[in-house]
Amino acid sequence: MKQRSFEQGREKSWQGFAGQLVTAKRGYRLSDVDPQDFAAQYQSVARDLSVAKSRGYSPRLIRHLNSLVVRGHSLIYARRSGYAGVFVRFLIADFPRQVRAEWRYMVVSALLFVVPLVAMTSVIFQAPEWVYSVMSAEQASDLEAMYDPAARSLGRQRDSDADFQMFGFYIMNNVGISFRLFASGLLAGLGSAFFLVFNGIHLGAATGHLMNVGFGGTFLPFVVGHGSFELTAIVLSGAAGLMLGHALVAPGAYRRIDALRFASRRAVLIVIGAAMMLFVAAFIEAFWSSISAVAPAVKYVVGASLWLFVFAYLIGAGRGEIR
C-alpha cells in the first residue's frame, strides 16, 4: 500500500487519538475518557507505527506516529504506576537498559577517558617532573596535603562536623563536571571528547604524582569506594554528549534538529541516571571515603564490592519484564 492511501485510511483514527490525548492529559489522568477505548486506540496507533517503519514510509509520518505513541504510553504508564512507580522502573530497568542500548557510545567514552588516565599515570611514574605540565607546583602541594597520611581526614581538608557541607560541595562539583561533558556534546561531540581526555589526563597526573611521593596508601583507599559511581558516571555523561554530537554530524535521513531531538531523548535518560550515581558517589565520598580511621583493607573490600555492584547493575538490571 502506498503511503498516501495509508494516511488517508488512518488519518481520522489518528486525529481521534490525538484528541483523546488532549483530554486525558489533564493531570495525567485517564478518568475523562474510556480507558478501554483509549488503550485500544493506543494499540492501533502503535501497530500503524510498526507498519510505517516496516514499509519505509517518510520520516515525517514516522515522527508523527511515534509522538502519538510516546504520549499515549506516558499517560497509560503514569496512571498505572504513579510517579513512585515511574522512578522505581527507571532505576531498576529503564536506565540500565538505555545504557546497554547505547553501548557503542559507552565504549568510545570509556576509551577517551581511561586511555589518557592510564597513559598519564605511566608517564608520571617514569618522569615525575611531567606532573608540572598538568598542574602548578602549588596545586601539586595542595594535592599532597589532601592525602598526607598524617591528616585527620582524607580528601579536602575540613572540620569533622562539616561532612554535610562537603556532601553538598561534592554534589555540585560532580554535577558540574557531568553537565559539561553532556552539554559540550553540542559542539559536534568534540567538547565531550575534550573533557573526557582532559579529566583522564588530570586524574592520571594526580594518581601518578601521589604514588610517586608515597601517598598511594591513603589516596587509593580514599578513591576506591566512591570511584565506582563517580568514574562510571563521568563515562556515561561523556557518552550522552557524544550521542548529541553524532546526531548533529550524521543525522541520517532526518533533519539535524530532528535527529538531535531524538538523540537527546535517549541521552537525557542516561544523564539523569548518571546524576543519581553522582549523588551516591558524593554521599560515599563525604561520609565514608574521608574517614582515616578505617583500615585500608576494609576500604578495598568495600570498594571492590561497589565496583562489582555497579557493573552487575548496568549489565544485568532490567533484563526481565518489569511490571
Would you kindly provide a written description of the structure presented here, covering whatever features stand out?
There is one protein chain. The protein has two domains: 3-89; 102-316, no CATH class. Helices cover 78% and strands 0% of the residues. The chain is mainly alpha-helical and 323 residues long. Helix 1 crosses helix 3 (59-101) and helix 6 packs across helix 7.
Q: What keyword list fits this structure?
A:
mainly alpha
What's the gist of this structure?
The protein has helices spanning 3-24, 35-54, 59-101, 103-126, 137-146, 163-183, 190-212, 216-249, 256-289, 296-316.
Could you tell me how far the N terminus lies from the C terminus, measured between alpha carbons in angstroms?
37 Å
Radius of gyration: 24 Å
What are the segments in which pLDDT stays under 50 over at least 5 consecutive residues?
27-31, 157-161
Mean pLDDT: 84
Structural category: mainly alpha
Give the proportion of residues in helices.
over 70%
Furnish the topology, listing elements before pairings.
Blueprint: H1 3-24, H2 35-54, H3 59-101, H4 103-126, H5 137-146, H6 163-183, H7 190-212, H8 216-249, H9 256-289, H10 296-316
